[in-house]
Design goal:
Length: about 260
C-alpha cells in the first residue's frame, strides 16, 4: 500500500487542466482559467458616498459653532446626471449618493450635519465644522486601477469576485470546463432495493452526501452507484463511469486491510 503523500504525488503528476471556454461575465461560474486584469479605473469617476452637499474643503477651514460658515446651494446632482460647473466661491451643491462630484469639490458633508436656510429666495447651508478633504468621497480608481489583477487563475468564481469583474466592465472570462464526476460506493453492508428481509445492512449515506456536495459546487455528477464487496463488480462500475467520460471517479469504501477490501 502506498502512502497518502505518494498518492497525492501520483495524482499531481498525472492531472492535466481541463479545456477552457469563454463565458459572459454576468453569467460566469466555475474556476478561472486565466487572470482577469483591470483595464480602467474603478470607480470610473469620483462620486459621493453620502446624501449631502459637495463642498470645497479649503473653504470650510475654521468653521465651528461660534464661527459658522454659510454656503450658497447651487443646484442638485442626482445619480446618473452630469455635474454642473460651479465657479463661484463659497458655494456648494446638493448631491445624492453615487452622484458624480463636481469639478473642484473634494468633500461631502452629510445632509444631517448642516442647517438648510432660505433667504431672499435663495437656498443656503450653514456649516459649523471643518470638512476634511476626501470625506465621504469615493475617488476614481480607489478600488481598481488599469493593470491591477481583479482575480487570479485558479480562483473559484463567487459573488464577490463576479461583482468586482463586472464593476470593471469585463464582458467575458475564461473558465475551465467543470469535471464530470462519478460516485461509486462499495460494501455488502449497504442497503439495496432487492435485499433479503432482516439483512444486517445500513443505509448508504456516503453516496448521497458526496453527490449533494458535488452538486452544491455546481459540478455535474455522472451518477451514483453502489456495489457489494466484489472486485469484478467494482471494476465493471469503474469501467462504466469511464465509458461515460468521467473525469473523476470517487470511490467510497474498501480502504482498510480487511479480506473484502480490494
Amino acid at each position: 500500500m502506498i502512502t497518502y503523500k505518494e498518492a497525492i504525488n501520483i495524482l499531481s503528476n498525472a492531472l492535466q487542466p481541463l479545456p477552457d471556454f469563454k463565458m459572459a461575465s454576468e453569467q460566469a461560474h466555475g474556476v478561472l482559467a486565466g487572470d482577469v486584469i483591470s483595464t480602467e479605473e474603478v470607480p470610473h469617476f469620483s462620486n459621493s458616498a453620502m446624501d449631502g452637499f459637495a463642498v470645497r474643503s479649503v473653504e470650510t477651514n475654521g468653521a465651528k459653532t461660534d464661527n459658522p460658515l454659510r454656503l450658497v446651494v447651487r443646484g442638485c446632482i442626482l445619480a446618473g446626471e452630469l455635474a454642473p460647473e460651479i465657479d463661484q466661491k463659497e458655494s456648494c451643491c446638493e448631491i445624492m449618493t453615487g452622484s458624480v462630484m463636481p469639478t473642484g469639490f473634494d468633500a461631502v458633508i452629510p445632509v444631517e450635519q448642516v442647517e438648510l436656510i432660505d433667504k431672499d429666495g435663495r437656498a443656503f447651508i450653514v456649516i459649523n465644522q471643518s470638512v476634511k478633504s476626501g470625506r465621504n468621497v469615493r475617488f476614481s480608481g480607489e478600488d481598481f486601477k488599469p493593470g491591477q489583477v481583479i482575480a487570479k487563475k485558479g480562483q473559484l468564481l463567487n459573488p464577490h469576485i463576479l461583482m468586482a469583474i463586472n464593476a470593471n466592465r469585463v464582458e467575458s472570462v475564461s473558465v475551465y470546463r467543470p469535471p464530470k464526476i462519478g460516485i461509486l460506493t462499495t460494501g455488502s453492508e449497504l442497503e439495496t432495493v432487492n435485499q433479503e428481509e432482516n439483512s444486517p445492512t445500513i443505509p448508504n449515506t456516503n453516496g448521497p452526501f458526496l453527490q449533494a456536495s458535488i452538486r452544491r459546487m455546481g459540478i455535474p455528477c455522472n451518477g451514483m452507484v453502489s456495489v457489494g464487496d466484489s472486485s469484478q463488480m467494482i471494476l465493471e462500475k469503474i469501467q462504466n463511469f469511464m465509458d461515460l467520460e468521467s473525469d473523476i471517479i470517487i470511490i467510497s469504501g474498501g480502504v482498510s486491510a480487511g479480506k473484502a477490501d480490494f
